[in-house]
Structures are given as C-alpha cells and as structure tokens.
C-alpha cells in the first residue's frame, strides 16, 4: 500500500526547481513534498507571529514591518529586503506608427544622465550648508617617529590617562522594545536588575535574595516565553561586555543562562546561536580567571558546563565532534594544564573516571586527548588531597587544644 500523499498550498515543484538550479544531488522520492510542507509550516509560523504585531498596532492590514518584527522575534534572518517605499519608475511612452486605427505604444524607462560639472556647481541644501558636515584636512600623524603636538593629534598622556569604563548593571540593562506590553517591560526590567546586582553580594544580603528569586523565575516561570528573545539578546551582549570586567559578573550571567536552559516551558532551540558565541568567548579569559570560573573548586564547575552542553546540543551523542561548547571547554583547560613533553609516552586513562568526575560529554571528547584527560584528573586529585590534609590538620589541632584544656583543669 503506497504511503498517503501530503498536499499543501506550497507546491513541491518549486522545491524541485530550486534544487535543480543549485549544485546539489538529485532529491530522493518524496523529499520535495517533505521540504514543501516544512516551508509551508514556516510561512504559517511567520504569518501567525506577524498577525500578533498587526493586532498590537491596532490595524487590520498586514504590513511589511509586521513581517520584519515577526522574523526578528523568531530569529529568522531575511536574505532579500526590498526598499520601502518602493520607487515608482517614470515610464515614457513611444508611439509606433501602424496602418490600423488602433495606435500601439511601447513604454520604456529613460536613463537619467547626470552632468557632473553642473551638479557640482549647484548650491548645497540648507541643512547641509549650515552644518559642519564632513571636512577633509591634511595633517602629519608623525614625522620620523615623533608625533607633532597639534590639536588633531591627542596628547599621549591624556589618551593613556583615560580610565577604562567598567561595565555596570545599568549598562547591562537595555530597555525592551515598545512592542511589549507594559507588564512584560516591567518584568524584563526587574529581572535584569536582579540578575546582576549593582554591588557585591553575600549569602545573606537583600540583593542576593533578589538574584536567587530571579534565577528561580528564569528556571520555572512560563512567562519568560513572552520576553525570551530580549532576555537572550541581553545575556549575549552582557557576557561580551563583561569579558574584561571582574569574573564575578560573568559567573552571575552564566547562572542566568543555566537557569534559562533548565526552563522546560520555553522553546529555546532557535535562539542557541544568540548566546553560543558569548559562551565560547570565555576561552579568551586568562589562567587565573579559568581556574576561578571554569575550573572552580576541584573541577566542580566543569560538570555544570558539561550538563549545560548536553542540554544545548542534544544531538551531539552520535557525532562527538559536534559540540562546540565542549571544544571551547577543552581549549580553556589547556591554559591551566602542563603541555605534553616531546619524549613522554601517552598515558593510559580510564575515561569512566572522567565521566563520573566531570560528565559524559567531556569524556567522549577526550577519547583521543588522553594527556589532557590525565592532567585534569591529576589536578583534581591534588586539590582533593590538599583539602583532605587541611581538614585532617584542623581536626588534629582541635584535638590538641581539647587535651591541653583537660590538663589545665586537672
């Protein structure tokens, strides 16, 4: 019995013609129908989202701006954008003599000819003539390696003395677009303000309690879907701004990303590319920053990153090299481990121990990088041994103090 044929509005012949015009392999049987159904579904999705903007604008006609806002909200980048308003060409008619009573005409678009001599002699418009505009003036940047002291060249001491602006929570709170209702705008503002407190937080401060409440809202609240695109943009831009700031701010933003990924009530897959580059940019951090943020205490942060990578890239189990977040994690860890000497043989490492300590995704990626796996296990053992020795020393000191107190009492 042949499979049922799925018919839709979008014709499959268009898919076949596009595939034939591109240097692709011939489509298999039924592939054009499946692709046509997928295209029709995406068109319906964009039109449905555009109708929301049309209803919000209190209009009954769908405008191109509504489609643009819908594509922006769905993270779809258009390839061709027509100019607005569309230019209306001025056609000129050419009569054609004929023997019949009906005279035929041909319309053509005349080419506009510009005389540069006349065009350059024309006076400037009033708005441009009264303003300073763009002016060109030649001056020396340097003469034999020495910069002249003129007003066009800034003083080196003044230029080096300018302090670098540190990103604060105010600069990390862009305003949401006016297409959002007032309630969602207020929710977005309160959420971003609480996620990055303006002052250092402790375990018992009011700002820390607000931050934990905001993380809980990101993790469980379904209302985040209404401002999802704005939260994702804010997280990506904030991580990029804070790469040169104190690492504590980056840690707070990473906690927000982890809470957003843990929310089962939002559809986050189309927006992975928004903050993927920001998360991969953490590989630019220095050695001390990698130890304090990526490694953590005995490598406990690596398991969190491994869990986050498994949630973001659910299809990376079959192809072990398709998880860019784990590749960036290994690149970060190469900063704090010792390089392999040339005459050192490759050690034998139990990858199950890597999976138990750090996570299965990292263990799969370290299948052919046994030196890196051996080094991170060595770092973890050294930190755990140092912590156990410190704990045993503290216990021994406490016992000695207790014995001394008993002797004094006797």
From TrEMBL:
Q: Which Gene3D superfamilies match?
A: Histone, subunit A, TAF6, C-terminal HEAT repeat domain
Region of interest (Disordered), residue spans: 149-175, 383-410
**What biological process terms from GO does the record include?**
RNA polymerase II preinitiation complex assembly
What Gene Ontology molecular-function terms does this entry list? protein heterodimerization activity; RNA polymerase II general transcription initiation factor activity; transcription coactivator activity
Q: Can you supply one Gene Ontology CC term for this chain's record?
A: SAGA complex
Q: What is its main location?
A: nucleus
UniProt KW Transcription regulation keyword: yes
> TATA box binding protein associated factor (TAF) histone-like fold domain: from which residue to which, for each copy?
8-75
Annotated Polar residues bias: 154-175
One family name in Pfam for this protein: TAF6_C
Q: Does the keyword rRNA-binding apply?
A: no
Enumerate the subcellular locations listed in this protein's record, separating them with semicolons. Nucleus
- What family does the entry list? Belongs to the TAF6 family.
Name by which UniProt lists this protein: TATA box binding protein associated factor (TAF) histone-like fold domain-containing protein
Q: What organism does the record attribute this protein to?
A: Kwoniella europaea PYCC6329
